[in-house]
Amino acid sequence: MIYRTLKELKSKIPTGFKPIMHSDQGWHYQLPYYISELKRMNIKQSMSRKGNCLDNSPIEIFFSLLKREYLNNFEIRNIKMLTKLTKEYLQFFNNQRISLKTKGMTPIEYRNHSLKNYLT
């Protein structure tokens, strides 16, 4: 699963960017092939410190929103349905859902706004 994710991610990283991949300290994020693949892709590896759940708070907040705002409205019968619903919510979250934290912009708009300011 991790290798497939990295393979898909590789084609989406803009030229010249040096992304950071943040994760917890799960065993799969410590495997030699994963670490070497990140280096090969010029991705800096970042891990949560042991026992510090605050490092993971942004993704934990996202999963909480996913469940409260969307998944709890359905009786999920199988992994195919869960995958479909999750993709639908991601599309909504990234392209339509605005937030005060992102100055009233969607995450995509906020990212593009930030990149534009960073690059100029």
UniProtKB/TrEMBL annotation:
MF terms from GO for this chain are: nucleic acid binding
- Which Pfam family would be a valid example here? rve_2
Q: Which Gene3D superfamilies match?
A: Ribonuclease H-like superfamily/Ribonuclease H
Q: Any idea where the Integrase catalytic domain is?
A: 1-115
- GO biological process terms, semicolon-separated: DNA integration
Q: Which SUPFAM superfamilies match?
A: Ribonuclease H-like
Give the matching PANTHER family.
TRANSPOSASE INSF FOR INSERTION SEQUENCE IS3B-RELATED, TRANSPOSASE INSO FOR INSERTION SEQUENCE ELEMENT IS911B-RELATED
Q: What is the designated name of this protein?
A: Integrase catalytic domain-containing protein
- Source organism of the structure: Apilactobacillus ozensis DSM 23829 = JCM 17196
